Amino acid sequence: MLSQLRRIVQDVAQEPVLNNALAGLVSNVKNALKTECCSVYLADYEQQHFMLMATDGLNPEAVGQISIGFSEGLIGWVGQREEPINLAQAHLHPRFKVTPEVSEDRFSAFLGCPIIHHRKVLGVLTIQQGESRVFSEDEESFLVTLGVQLASVLVHAEMRQAASQNSKQQKSTGQLQGLPGAPGIAIGEGFVLEPSSDFDAISLKKVDDPEKELSRFYKAVKITKAEFNRLAERMAGHLPPDALAIFDVYHQLLDAASLGNEIEKQIHEGWCAKSALKRVVEKFARQFDDMDDPYLRERGTDIRDLGQRVLNHLLDTEQRHHKLPEKVVLVADNVTATMLAEIPRAQLVAIVSLKGSVNSHAAIMARALGIPAVMGLDELPLFHWQSKRLIVDGYRGQILVAPAEAIVAEYQALISEDAQLSARYQSEMHLNAQSACGAPFSLMVNAGLAIELESTQPSYTDGIGLYRTEFPFIMRNRFPTEAEQIELYKKVLASHPTKAVVMRTLDVGGDKALPYFSIIEENPFLGWRGIRLTLDHPEIFLVQIRAMLKANIGQGNLHILLPMISDLAEVDESLRLIKQATFELTDELAGTEIQLPKAKVGVMIEVPSIMYQLPELARKIDFCSVGTNDLTQYLLAVDRNNPRVAGLYDAMHPAVLRALHQMSLQAQGLQLPMSICGELAGEPAGVLILAAMGYDKFSMNSSNLAKIKWLLRRVNMSELQLLLPEILACQSPKQVRLQVQRFLDQKQLLNQLRA
Ligand code: PEP
Ligand code: MG
Fold first, then answer.
1. Which residue spans within 130-266 are E strands per DSSP?
2. Which strands form 67-69's sheet, in the order they lie side by side?
3. CA 662 to CA 669: how far, in whole Å?
4. Pairing of β 558-562 and β 500-504
5. Contact at 8 Å (CB) between 389 and 368?
6. Any ligand 1 atom below 6 A from CB of 362
7. Residue 512: nearest ligand to its CA?
8. Cα of 356 to ligand 1 centre, how many Å?
9. Do 51 and 72 meet the contact criterion of CB atoms below 8 Å apart?
10. DSSP letter at 325?
11. Which end of the chain is more exposed for a tag (fewer CB within 10 A), N or C?
C-alpha cells in the first residue's frame, strides 16, 4: 500500500504537464484500488467552481468542460465539509446533482475526498463503482492519505503552470502567492543562483534539446575526471594504493558502460542533464543502500559523492551560461549573504527566496538593502524562474510572471508613488528624531548583514544599534583572523566616531550557516546557536573580543552585545572571557602610551527565560537590547524561518506586546538602558506601540529609518498613551493592527504610509 501510494505521488510530481500528471493519477488510483472510476476536480476560486480535470471512468469528453459550483452536488459538498464522503447509493442522496454530460448513471457507490493545502481546498478526488456498497475503511484511508500527499504536489504543479504562462495568457490568477519578505515593488528578470549543489534541491525537468544537454553532461564528466586525476596525484604519497583505487572506480563509473550510459539514456528520453543525473544517481545509490553487505552498502555513498561532483560542474557551467540581466530579481532556494555579494548592487532590484519566511535573515537582508522580497514559494522549482520577466510585490508577497504590458504599467505607477513617498520621508532626515510634542528618540541603524552594500547615513542617526558580525565570517572559507577582524571593526567604529556602535558577538546557527563549519541539527533554532556556540569555542570568542577591543583603541565607542543569552551563567562566562581578553591586551600594551578604552557590555533579550532575570542581569551588565525577531519566535513557539507556520509568527501577538510592555516598565525601574533592535522597531505600527510603552531607543534597517523618523515627528506622546490600553486589551494581532490603523487614519497618516 505504502509503496503504491509513494509511486502514485512520485509519478504526479515528476510529470511536468499538469493535465498529463492528473490523467496518470486517475488511472493509477483506479488500478491500485481496483475500482471502476476515478476522477479529479480542481477548484477555481475566481469562478467559484470545481472543474473536472481528469477521469478514468466518466465520459472523457467532459474533461475541462464540466464544472460544479462550490455549493453544488456531492463534489461541492465534499469541498464544503472538508472531509471524505462515502456513499453506497450516491444517486439517492439529496445533494446528488444530475450531470448527464459525465455519464455516471452506471455508478452507485461514491467516495469523494478533499485535497487540502494549508487549509485551502484545492480539489476533490473521487472513486466510483457500479455495485452499491460503502467503500471499505482501507480504501477510504488510502484516498485520504493520497489526498494529503497530493496537496503539496498539486500546488507545485499549479504554480508551475502559472509560472509558465506567457504574457498573452496572463490573467489575475497567474499570480504566485508567497509571503511578504521586504516591502516595495520591483520589475526585473529572474536570475537563479543555486547553492553549492544538493540533489534534494534539484527538481526534475524535461527539455527539448537533448544534444545540448548531452554536450553539457560530457563537459561536466570531463572536468570531473580531470579533478579526480588531480586529487589522485595530490594524494599519491599520502594514501595507501588500495585507498587510491577509489579514483579508478570513479573513473570507471563515469564511463559510458556504467552510470554514464544510463544517464545518456535518460537524456535521450528528454530529461535535462541535471535531472538525468539525479534520477540515475538516486536509483543506483538506493540499490546499494538496500544491500545487506556493509561494504556494498557503502558504495551508495560513493555514487552520491561522485554524482555530487558532476552536479557541481553542471551547475557551474549553467550559471556561467546565463548572462546577468540589467535588472536582477535574484531567485534562490535560500538567499544567502554570499549570493547577494555576487550581484552588483546597482543591478539587484528584488529577491525571491523560495525557502524562509518573514523574519528569516534573507528577508532582513533585503530590508537592509531597501529592496522588495518575497519568501516561501518552495513548491515551485527553481528552474521555472530563470530569465522570466517578474513583478515582485513585496507588500503583498506576490509575484507576477511574464505579466502583460498593461499590468506592468500599473505596477510602474505604484513604483513611482513609492519613490515620491520615500522622497517625502527623506526630506526630513536631517531633523531631530522627536515626537510632535518634543519627546526625544534615539534612532540607530542595524548593520552588518551586508555592510558593503548598505547605505547608512551616519550624520542623521544616533549610531549603530546592532552590528551583526556574522557577515565577515560567512563570506570567507575559514574563520577570519584577528587582524582581519580588527581592520573591519575599526572601519565600523570609525563610521560613527562620536556615537555608540553596538557590536554583537558571532550569532551563527539557526538560519545562518558558516560554509566551513557545518552544523546539522534537527532543531537548529533551539540548538547550538549564538553565545552557546561561541562559549563552547572560547578560541573563536576570545579572538573576536580581542579584535573588537583593539579596534576600539582611539575610538572608545564600542558596545559589546551578547546574543541568545538564556541563562545568567552564560553572562558570567562571557564577562570572564571579556575580562581575560582585556587583561591580555592591557599586558600587551604595557609600556606604551596606548590606552585601552573600556567597552560597555550588554545582552540581547531574545530568549524568554532571561526576561524573568532582569534584576540580576541589571547588576552585571551596562545595557540590553530586545531582539523582537527571536523573542517572537521563542514566545510563540513558531519557527521564524518556516513558511508553513508563517501565519502564526507575529510580533503584534498580544502575548509578545504584553511581555514587551512589562519589560519596559521593569527596565525603567531598574534603570537598565533598554533598546529595541528587532524588526518591530522599523515597522510604523510597531514603533508607535513601542513608543507608547515607553521605549525610546530604536535600531532598525537603514531603509526604514527616514519613514520612522517622519512618523514619530507627527505623533504626540499623550495620544500614544491613550492608545496603549486599547492595544494591550486586544485579543489578536489583527485587532492590534486595526487599532493602530484607526489611530493613523484619524491623524490622516494612513494613506501616507504604505506597509
Ligand atoms: C532579533 O532576534 O530580533 C535580532 C535582532 O537578531 P537576529 O534577527 O539577527 O536574530
Ligand atoms: Mg536574534
1. 175-177, 179-182, 185-192
2. 67-69, 49-56, 37-44, 120-129, 109-117, 85-87
3. 11
4. parallel
5. no
6. no
7. 1
8. 15
9. no
10. P
11. N
Question: If you take atom 1 of ligand 1, which residue's CA is the nearest one?
Answer: 627
Work out which ligand 1 atom sits closest to the CA atom of 628: 3
C-alpha–C-alpha distance, residues 564 and 116, integer Å: 37
Q: Is 747 exposed, middle or buried (0-12, 13-18, 19+ CB in 10 A)?
A: middle
Q: Which of 72-86, 155-169, 377-391, 712-726 has the lowest mean pLDDT?
A: 155-169
**C-alpha cell of residue 534:** 561561541
pLDDT (tens digit per residue) in 119-174: 889 999 999 999 999 999 999 999 999 999 888 778 767 666 665 654 444 444 46
Q: What angle is formed at CA 115 by the lines to CA 111 and CA 121, rounded to 5 degrees?
A: 115
Among residues 477, 450, 544, the alpha carbon closest in space to that of 504 is found at 544
pLDDT of residue 167: 41
- Separation between Cα atoms, residue 240 and residue 243, nearest integer Å: 5
pLDDT digits (tens, 9 = 90+) for 67-116: 999 999 999 999 999 999 999 999 999 999 989 999 988 999 999 999 99
**Length of the chain as a residue count:** 755
**Catalytic residue list contains 624:** no
Find out whether 402 and 386 touch, Cβ atoms under 8 Å: no
Cα–Cα dist 178/375, whole Å: 6
Do 353 and 363 meet the contact criterion of CB atoms below 8 Å apart?
A: yes
CA of 446 to the centre of ligand 1 (A): 10
- Rounded CA separation 220/351 (Å): 29
Residue 43 predicted with pLDDT over 90:
yes
Query: Is residue 321 flagged as an active site residue?
Result: no
What contacts 659, CB < 8 A, 6 or more positions away? 608, 611, 631, 635
336, three cell numbers: 544567502
* Cell 513558511 sits on residue: 643
Integer angstrom CA distances of residue 404 from 335, 350, 382, 409: 28, 19, 22, 9
Ligand 2 centre to CA of 563 (Å) is 7
Q: Which of 517, 637, 499 is nearest to 559 (CA)?
A: 499
Q: What is the pTM of this model?
A: 0.79
E strand intervals along 354-427? 373-375, 389-393, 398-401
Burial label, 132 (beta-carbon count in 10 A; 0-12, 13-18, 19+): middle
Residue in the structure block whose three cell numbers are 498539486: 154
Ligand found nearest the CA of 641: 1
Q: Is 128 in the pocket of ligand 1 (CB under 6 A)?
A: no
Strands 442-447 and 697-701: parallel
Q: How far apart are CA 558 and CA 504, in angstroms?
A: 10
Per-residue pLDDT band at 320 (split at 50, 70, 90): low
CA angle 79, 85, 86 (to 5 degrees): 155
The edge-to-edge listing of strands for the beta sheet with 348-353 is 175-177, 398-401, 389-393, 185-192, 328-332, 348-353, 373-375, 179-182
- Active-site option among 37, 38, 677, 730: 677
pLDDT value of residue 170? 42
CB neighbour list of residue 363: distance below 8 Å, 6 or more residues apart: 181, 182, 353, 356, 357, 373, 375
Determine if residue 166 is left, alpha or beta; phi over 0 gives left, psi from -120 to 50 gives alpha, anything else beta: beta
Nearest Cα to Cα of residue 660 among 613, 712, 728? 728
Mind listing the pLDDT tens digit for each residue in 532-579? Answer: 999 999 999 999 999 999 999 999 999 999 999 999 999 999 999 999
Q: Tell me the Cα Rg of the chain.
A: 30
What is the atom index within ligand 1 of the atom nearest the CA of 470? 9
What single-letter DSSP state applies at residue 257?
I
